[in-house]
Amino acid sequence: MSNRHRNCSSQFEIESSAAANLTQVFRNLFTHPPRLPLIAPSILAADFGHMAAECRSVLPSKPPEERGYGIISRRVKHDPAVADLFHVDVMDGHFVPNLTLGPDMVRAIRKSIPESFLDVHLMVTDPWLHAQAFVKAGADHITFHVEVVPPADIAGLARRIRDLESPRGAVSVGLAINPPTPVERIMPHLEPFDLILVMSVNPGFGGQSFITEVLKKVEAISPELTPHQRLEMDGGIQVATIDACLDSGCDVVVAGSAIFGEAAAKRGKAIERLRGIPSVGKSG
To answer: N or C: less crowded end of the chain, CB within 10 Å?
Structure first.
């Protein structure tokens, strides 16, 4: 685990004071995380026919009125089997060779699970157009790709997205980079963002194998970020690759099949394993 990762873990522990504002913690999950790493199940790997039930399968078992506002609260922040947020992969069939989730999916999850934090990853050629629709639908965070915006316009687009009116309060903004793109392409643009996303597969389809070479990008980016900025990795992450991700500097981990590929009753254990907690039981 990187030094930046360790420092954040201690810096952002929730105060025990009764005055701690859970709504503010919820709305600023990336800039003020109650714990690190954050585990983000990718709903692209869930059963679309039962999405609400799939999402609830990785949340606390207590009813919403007992959980407080937001997945993470003082009541559940120490539960290693609970997910911290949901990752929503949006593909337009143009920037990447697949067509996936639209704003209505975000709207439906928001209605069904209002306390959830929704991290929307736009793999699209027109991020401004899509950002507006997803923020209106209830997204808490928007990430777009460095490959689709002229360098001179990147910071301005981040400001425009952050200034969008949202029923959820302030929207955080991220910048993503694909495996073939040189890390130098993103390095001048780190400062305006709350999160940097390093793709560890070529985007377009779930279930791909982890590309080890991208860890060098993470190692280059991590020292340049402040404690209030997150470094996320998405693609092919399993128990076998999680340690390398965290050790290189990631503190937000997106996992699809590693979580939703398990039976619902086993997903809590899968999340624990992604946090580095060994399974307890019979060996062999």
So the answer is: C
